[in-house]
């Protein structure tokens, strides 16, 4: 069975139903691109899967390896191997970046019955990961995202991804705000992690990046429902015709 099975998920924020009966599969090792107009619910899906308390799952399931994530705390979902990079990565004042990443890595290791990382080994791989992503080493000693530029925040999310090597990564508009070198670094990192077994849901508006990602599946979300399912051709068609697609274009 697929690594992730989302079944009939309904998500409310406050009084409002933002996702209506969303179902999707992410087979192990695959990459799913999620497209959709602004406000269609892409980030809501990520936040709900990650377990953000404001996103109220009122119906449905999200099975990771057959185990329902709904009802688990956000940190328990992370331990189970889920990773979300935020569309707008928040500051975590007072918490140094290297400690934050190391704590997250050790929590995952602990849940697998592995020993905590040696401090020296951690720093060595964090430094090399930062270098791969074009982040200065000094970023590791600064509070998470505090004073980071938009692009640096995105790169920092990618550093967490590279270090954590999750089973399933949800990347929410990771390419927005990144320069060309940053986009290249994302694509290279995704390729490397895919080869190591990580599966992906990638939210993106940019066909150029989507082409490079070679997705297995492309989904279009519309007003909180999966409106279309396809492959790269669907992304190309959306890039040509926009999101205001009528039934005729959707079928063409
Ligand atoms: P997308 O990521 O596809 O642009 P979002 O998931 O961010 O869309 O938002 C989906 C809808 O939910 C939007 O109409 C948005 O205004 C609404 N929404 C998101 N977060 C909140 C919130 N905290 N309170 C009220 N409405 C929200
Ligand atoms: Mg948006
Ligand atoms: Mg969004």
Automatic annotation (TrEMBL):
Keywords: ATP-binding, Cell membrane, Membrane, Nucleotide-binding. Gene3D superfamilies: P-loop containing nucleotide triphosphate hydrolases. This is Fe-S cluster assembly ATPase SufC. PANTHER family: ABC TRANSPORTER I FAMILY MEMBER 6, CHLOROPLASTIC (PTHR43204:SF1). Residues 4-248 form the ABC transporter domain. InterPro entries: AAA+_ATPase, ABC_transporter-like_ATP-bd, ABC_transporter-like_CS, FeS-cluster_ATPase_SufC, P-loop_NTPase. Belongs to the ABC transporter superfamily. Ycf16 family. PROSITE patterns: ABC_TRANSPORTER_1, ABC_TRANSPORTER_2.
